[in-house]
Design a protein that fits this description.
The chain has 280 residues and is of the alpha/beta class. It has helices at residues 7-27, 43-59, 74-85, 105-109, 123-130, 139-150, 170-179, 194-198, 244-247, 262-279, and strands at residues 3-4, 33-39, 62-68, 92-95, 159-163, 183-187, 203-206, 224-227, 231-232, 238-239, 253-254. It has two domains: 29-113, 3-Layer(aba) Sandwich (Rossmann fold), CATH 3.40.50; 139-262, NAD(P)-binding Rossmann-like Domain (Rossmann fold). The protein contains ten helices and eleven strands. A six-stranded parallel β-sheet has the order 1-11-8-7-5-6. Strands 3-2-4 form a three-stranded parallel β-sheet, sandwiched between helices. A two-stranded antiparallel sheet has the order 9-10. A hairpin with a 5-residue loop joins β9 and β10 (238-239). α6 (139-150) crosses α7 and α6 (139-150) crosses α10 (262-279). The protein is globular and about 50 Å long. The structure holds guanine. Guanine binds next to β4.
Length: 280
């Protein structure tokens, strides 16, 4: 029986710590403010953006919502970002992805001032992470580090295996585990003998994008298993990249889906907003 890593509880703990911090900053006359930009009306993005606004309201962060039509020209979006960069009352800027096809996502993200890049997606933020300089870190991997630390799971010297090499999760995850002195291996779709590698892991992070891909045959007994995936099954229930029923009996600790990694992403976004405000 594995220990359940309760992301819902840990994210609540973080949000309550931030709420107290934001109140203290308010007493000093500083109101933290996040600008959230959504272009078009992708339904999933609308849900994500709504959850971010809700979290801001809970913590006491002011949120400015910019809902731009799908046909918005790239230049107009860039102008808005530049205006927000120059506005000292705005501490964080978030452009919800994906953007419409006529926009260059890299160009848009790299227009955000690194000091306000609370998603940690700017090329400078990513570079800073890889050479151990200060900067904002992508929220999902930063949240996973918090899950491990707050569950007293040691990273230093441990075999850490990350499956997935995306810019948002896999790559920054590997950098963060390395920063914590883990021994890190990154696997991906072309990895040969995946099972042989994953079975070495003391800490296994699954960010594959395939429902229930990781069963017990991929996992060493007693390992910590972190599931980044989220998928809607035919029966309407959510599942992750890990086959929970198969893995839970042999793992040492495991995150559930839902209620594991998911809630940590927004908590860390809020953390980055507060940090941006403190630094400003
Ligand atoms: N789209 C899906 N996840 C994210 C995220 O974490 N940040 C942004 N900006 N867009 C997303």
């Amino acid at each position: 029986m594995a220990t359940l890593i309760d992301g819902k509880r840990i994210s609540q703990e973080i949000k309550d710590e931030l709420k107290a911090k934001v109140e203290a900053l308010k007493e000093q006359g500083k109101e933290i403010c996040l600008a959230v930009i959504q272009v078009g009306n992708d339904p999933a993005s609308t849900v994500y953006v709504g959850n971010k606004k809700k979290a801001c309201a809970y913590i006491g962060i002011k949120s400015l919502a910019y809902e731009l039509p799908e046909e918005t020209k790239e230049d107009e979006l860039l102008e808005l970002i530049k205006k927000l960069n120059d506005d000292d009352s705005v501490h964080g800027i978030l452009v919800q992805l994906p953007l419409p096809k006529h926009m260059d996502e890299d160009k848009v993200i790299d227009t955000i001032s690194p000091a306000k890049d609370v998603d940690g997606f700017h090329v400078q933020s990513v570079g800073a992470l890889s050479i151990g300089r200060p900067g904002f870190v992508s929220c999902t991997p930063a949240g996973i580090i918090q899950l491990l630390k707050r569950s007293n799971i040691e990273i230093e010297g441990k075999e850490c295996v990350v499956i997935g090499r995306s810019n948002i999760v896999g790559k920054p995850m590997s950098m963060l585990l390395l920063r914590e002195n883990g021994t890190v291996t990154v696997c991906h779709s072309r990895t040969k003998n995946l099972k042989e590698v994953t079975k070495r892991a003391d800490i296994l992070v699954a960010a594959i994008g395939k429902p229930k891909f990781i069963d017990a045959s991929y996992v060493k007994e007693g390992a910590t298993v972190i599931d980044v995936g989220i998928h809607r099954q035919e029966n309407g229930k959510l599942c992750g990249d890990v086959d929970f029923e198969s893995v839970e009996p042999i793992a040492g600790a495991i995150t559930p889906v839902p209620g594991g990694v998911g809630p940590m992403t927004i908590a860390m976004l809020m953390n980055n907003c507060v940090e941006a405000g403190e630094r400003a």
